[in-house]
Amino acid sequence: MIEWIRVLKALRFTRALLWPLTINAMAAAVCAALFGSAVGWNAATRTGYSPWIGNGLPFLQILALAFLANRLLRIIASGTTLPKLGLQLVSVLVYFLAIAVSVSFVFNESLGTLLAASGIAGLVVGFAIRGLLADLFSGIVLHLDSNLTVGDWVDVSLRGKEFRGKVLDIQWRTVVITDRSENLVLIPNSEFVAATVVNRSRPTIATEYGATLTVGSEYDRRRVVAILETALARVTTEGDVLKHPAASVRVGGLEGGLVLYRMFYCVDPGTTAPLRAQSTVIGTAIDFLKAAGIHLYPIQRTHHCRLTLPGHDRHTEADIRQQTLANVRLLSVLSHDELRLLAEATTLRSFRHGQTVMRSGEAGESMMVVVEGRLEVTTDGPEGPIAVATLWPGECVGEMSLLTGAPRSATVIAAGDVFLFEVDKAALAPILAANQPLVKNIATLIETRHAGNGNSDVSDISGSKPETVLTKIINFFRLLHSQ
To answer: Number of H helices and number of E strands within the chain?
Structure first.
C-alpha cells in the first residue's frame, strides 16, 4: 500500500512538471538546431542571426527555465505552511532573476549599470506607487505574523469604525473580511496593521462577553442571582453559550436604588454570532425575572407589608401570579377575568434541591408551573433513572393530571431550589363550569401540542385523540352539559 502511495505521488509530481519540461525540451531543441548548442545564450553562432532570433530564442529559453523552477518550487512549498503571498513573492523573485540573467548573458549589458540608470526612474515610480508599496510590505508583515491567520474571527477598530468578521484572505493589497451578513470588507494592508485588532480566535475559541440588567434593590440579591444563573443555564443547554468556561453572575454596582447585575458568558464567534448570543441571554433573563414577578425598574408601592421571613412574601401579588399563568400555553385560551380567578386560587409550592415534585405512577389532580429554578424529568431505565427533559421558568408539567386525573408517567425532581405555582382541579373547576366551551378549546390545544412533539407533560395520554381528551375532561369535571 505504501509503495502504491509513493507511485501515485511520483506520477502527480511528474504530471505537474510535464508541461514545463516539454517547453524547455522544445526550446533546447530549437536552439540546438539553429545555433548548434542546446544552451542558446552560450552559442557563438547566434550573433549571425537577427536580434529577434539571436537574442529572442535564448531569452525565451531562460524564461522557460524560470517557469520550470517556479513550478518546482511551488510543488515543494505545497507541503509546507508558506502563505499564498509568500508563494507569489517567490515567483516574482524567480522571474526577476531570470530577467537579470538575460540582461547579463543574452544582451551583454552590465546589470549594475542598468540598475544605476534605472535609479531615478525607480524613485519617481516608487513615489507614485508609495501606497501600493506600503500595502505590499504590510501584507508581508501580516503573513509573517503568527498571531493572525486566515479563518480567525476578529474585531477591527479603524478610524472610529468597528468591523467584525472572519478573515477570508490576506492579499497583496488588502485584508478581506467577511461579516455575519456575508458582505466582504476590504481593508488596505497598510491601514490594517495600524488598526486595533482583537483576535477572537486566539489563544482559544472561547471569548467572554457580558450583559447587564438593572433590578430594584428591594429584591433579595441572592434570589436575583439564582434566577439569572438559571437563565444562563438555559441558554447554555440550548448551545448558544459555551459550557466551558462556565457562565457566571456578579453584582456590578449600585445606582440610586438600582442594582446592576452583570452576566458573563463565553461564545465561540465561529459558530454563534455574539450579538445573537447576547440577545438570547438578555431575553431569557427578562422572561425568567418576569415569571418570578421581579421588575427591571423600581415599582412605587403605596401599601405597607409586615416583615416576614425571607422568601415567604414571594409571588403574593395577584397580578404577578396572573402574569405568570398568562404565559402558560395551556392557559392562553382563558380570558383576563378567568386568569385572575385562577391566580387567586393558585398555591405557591417550594422544593429543595433533589426533592421529588412528582413521582411516576402516583395519582394527581394538579399541574405545576415553574416560577423559579428548574425541574428534571426522568423515566425509569434498565440501569436506573434517565433524564428526558428539563423544565424552565414559564413551563408547566402535569397538565393531563389536572384535566383528566391521569396518573403521572414520569418522575420530576427539583434541580436546585425551585418555586412552583400549583393549579389544581378545585381551582379550575368553577372556570370550566361557567364557560364550558373552553373544554373543547383546551382539548384541541393539547392535541395540537402533542402532534408537534412539544409536550412536557408527565401524565399518561398515549393514544389520545381530541375526542378522547375532550370526553375525559368532561367526565373528570362532571360537565354533563358541555357543548
So the answer is: 16, 16
